[in-house]
């Protein structure tokens, strides 16, 4: 067995500097002079978490209906140079601003398909305060607007090195993927056994609207030509639904007309006159004078006795 021995005793646990330690081999017998010569010293570097904290990025996350020009003042009061601002409209549309305060740039997104942890019920999990890895799609390096967004995401979502509240381990990863002209966000847990990924949640989709040169405004650097406002999208849905209703009404009217025509055809039998011969046409005689009165002839009735005699004969 081997024992670990420090020169300063227990003070090495709280000292930030590197330490020199000795390793001694414990034997049943007392160590000889040659074994004592084999004692060697080793230097252990200071812990990584006790390094110098140089990246002083601070992110302010809040949601409100305030004016955008007030947000820069709030960031200055809170001593923050990054901001995530969530703006809700009409109780159904959610917009997200990501900004480098106070000089910019900033980007505005429409948040779609939001699914929370309670809704998904995923099996993944991560420790509170752990540092996430950031994974980006290769398409972020192919176009300039996505390269700018990638740098904004790195400065906003990454954990500064040697941050006093960060933990010295990594157990989950944030992924940003570009598909269908949108940015898809996912949060996965890293399994230690085989380094596989299990989704934790939440998940959402970011639809880019504009990129501004300043913080929450200024000249427009990029505008998404494929973006469609939620109001226009809902209007198209209503128009499509109305067109379907009109189509159904037209189909009903056409079916009604067809049923009426079929009923008329059944009432008139075209085969009824097959066996009828046409009648001879008689000339029309118009009588201009009154007809002569008819004379009634009286019949001679024999007497009863004569009828009896005639019957005997």
TrEMBL record:
The cellular location(s) given in this protein's UniProt record come to: Nucleus, Nucleolus
Q: Write out the entry's keywords from A to Z.
A: Nucleus, Ribosome biogenesis
Q: Which PANTHER family match?
A: RIBOSOME BIOGENESIS PROTEIN BRIX, RIBOSOME BIOGENESIS PROTEIN BRX1 HOMOLOG
The UniProt entry, under SUPFAM superfamilies, shows:
Class II aaRS ABD-related
Q: Which SMART domains match?
A: Brix
Question: What protein does this entry describe?
Answer: Ribosome biogenesis protein BRX1 homolog
A matching Pfam family: Brix
List the biased-composition ranges (Basic residues). 296-313
Ranges for the region named Disordered are 281-313
A Gene Ontology molecular function term for this protein is: rRNA binding
Protein species of origin: Monopterus albus (Swamp eel)
Every copy of the Brix domain together lies at 1-217
Q: What is the lineage of its organism?
A: Eukaryota, Metazoa, Chordata, Craniata, Vertebrata
What this chain does, per the entry, is described as: Required for biogenesis of the 60S ribosomal subunit.
Q: Name one GO cellular component term.
A: nucleolus
Which family, according to the similarity comment? Belongs to the BRX1 family.
The alphabetized list of GO BP terms reads: ribosomal large subunit assembly; rRNA processing
């Amino acid at each position: 067995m081997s024992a670990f021995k420090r020169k300063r005793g227990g003070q090495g646990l709280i000292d930030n500097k590197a330490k020199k330690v000795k390793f001694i081999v414990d034997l049943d017998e007392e160590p000889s002079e040659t074994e004592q010569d084999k004692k060697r010293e080793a230097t252990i570097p200071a812990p990584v978490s006790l390094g110098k904290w140089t990246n002083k990025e601070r992110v302010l996350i809040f949601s409100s209906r305030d004016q955008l020009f007030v947000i820069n003042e709030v960031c200055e009061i809170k001593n923050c140079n990054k901001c995530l601002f969530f703006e809700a409209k009409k109780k159904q549309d959610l917009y997200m601003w990501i900004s480098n305060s106070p000089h910019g740039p900033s980007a505005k997104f429409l948040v779609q398909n939001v699914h929370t942890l309670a809704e998904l019920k995923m099996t993944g999990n991560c420790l509170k305060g752990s540092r996430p890895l950031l994974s980006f799609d290769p398409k972020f390096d192919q176009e300039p607007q996505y390269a700018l967004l990638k740098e904004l995401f790195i400065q906003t979502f990454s954990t500064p090195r040697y941050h006093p509240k960060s933990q010295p381990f990594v157990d989950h990863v944030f992924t940003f993927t570009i598909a269908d002209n949108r940015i898809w966000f996912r949060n996965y847990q890293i399994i230690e056994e085989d380094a596989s990924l299990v989704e934790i949640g939440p998940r959402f989709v970011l639809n880019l609207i504009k990129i501004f040169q300043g913080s929450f405004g200024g000249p427009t650097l990029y505008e998404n030509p494929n973006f469609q406002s939620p109001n226009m999208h809902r209007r198209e849905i209503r128009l499509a639904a109305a067109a379907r209703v009109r189509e159904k009404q037209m189909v009903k009217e056409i079916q009604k007309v067809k049923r009426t025509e079929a009923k008329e055809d059944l009432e008139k039998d075209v085969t009824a006159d097959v066996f009828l011969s046409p009648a001879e046409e008689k000339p029309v005689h118009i009588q201009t004078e009154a007809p002569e009165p008819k004379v009634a002839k009286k019949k001679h009735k024999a007497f009863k006795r004569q009828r009896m005699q005639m019957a005997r004969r």
